[in-house]
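Supplementary Text 2. Reproducibility record for the structural model of the 503-residue chain.

All settings were left at their defaults, and a single model was retained for analysis rather than an ensemble. We include the record here because the model underlies the residue-level annotations in Supplementary Table 4.
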Amino acid sequence: MALFFPRMLVAGLALLSTSLVLPARAIGGNAPGPAYAQIAHDIQAEIATGHLTGVSLALVQHGHIVWEQGFGWADREAGRKVTAHTPFSIASTSKTFTAAAMMTLVKAGKIKLDASANDYLGEDKIVDDQGPTSAATVRMLASHTSGLPSFFLMYMRGAKPRPPTTDALLRDYGEVVAPPGTHYEYSNLGYQVLDDIVERSAHEDFGAYLEKHIFQPLGMKDSFFETDAKPRSSRAVRYDDNGHPMPFYVTATPGSGGVYASAHDLARWAMFNLKDHRADQTPILSDHELDQLHEPQVLIGRDQYYALGWDVWKRADGSHVVGNPGGQSGVRSEFVLVPGADVGCVVLSNSHADRQFIEKVRDRLVASLVPGWQGLSFEAPKPIPLHSAGEYAGVWKGELTAQGKAIPVTLRVSPDGKATFAVGDAPAARVDGLGLLDKRLVGDTTGVIKGQDAKREHLQKLSLDVRRSGDRLSGEAVAWGVTVDRMAVVPFRIDLTHLSVPQ
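Retained model, structure tokens:
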């Protein structure tokens, strides 16, 4: 997930009790040279200390797998080891498949990229403050520019409530919080809407469509789309940041992150996207259509863009790197392609902890085949501090709305740029980091919003992101929280009116 409010995916690292650590052993292949043997040794050592539980990797070049191997435990308690064919939850790396499914239907003439997304939806639509909007297009959904908000919720097996339908999500959260096409905001909700568009356009269940039109033609035998309450026994169990096995869960937006895949299968996916035309793969898209998926659509940060389901990095030499990492509770997925060198790299972990180690493994693997590789960097745009409030100074009153709730709120901004935010009748809380980001006012605060989902998740952290138009501020207030085994991101539409200027 990529969000403007504080990074939620970097949780604190906690070690396992040594009494729980079992010896790690690599299976599924042998490192083909000294550099790779050292990487294998380091992964085994990291698992042995309890920093990680299981890891699987694959490295490809020129249409061939250079190395693939599994380490540690797919299910430590059952003694089941990781191999290169163990399916891992890959979180947001799934978006590359959702976008590809969309593109196969563009190819078939059933979807138009620049048509209104609402043309392909049912009774429940994407709306703005006037009602259903035609401004949000299919391309905007795939490039995170539709104006739909940030969103993430987990649902444990056997627990209530059950995951919502896409129609229910649209009713609760389907109002745009920014004019479509104006800026990038990572939206899992948008990708769930794409899931629904694929289903409706293909007249087929989304998971079945992936299996028939992507996994089978490309020979991806270890991959599946998991939304059932009963998990498959072959999968890697997720482990929390303290090294404890997590109950199986699904998310509210499986179209954004519901794929399970092995390192071997992702190696095959990498080779297809690198246009390595293998005899054992049936091309589901042309090279031109792959180029469309990989073409940058919107700037994220310095030298980084988002395409359609893919991140794109511009290197100093002018070449591009494409990929899509994934991260959520119990998951870390690194998936990177370097087209100029015809190289692809996959590193999967069934824990979200030790993110930096996984990224370093990725970079060591890529550097073994790409001279001068310096790794990937992401510099999120930083707000300009609001030292002098200027036109933002004053008392702003209005409402937060989501899930049928309208909650009164007040934002007070003093002339020196300090601010407070109050939800309902609760005491006002300080707003930290208040500043301007791409002509939007952003900041972080706290407050309890009694919407159904926010209340169930006990969310108290809030991040504000609003745009000024005359005497109005409109945008979103995102309630969020992260623990060692759970994440939640719940958006609220916010509309405020300027009432007075404090002296």
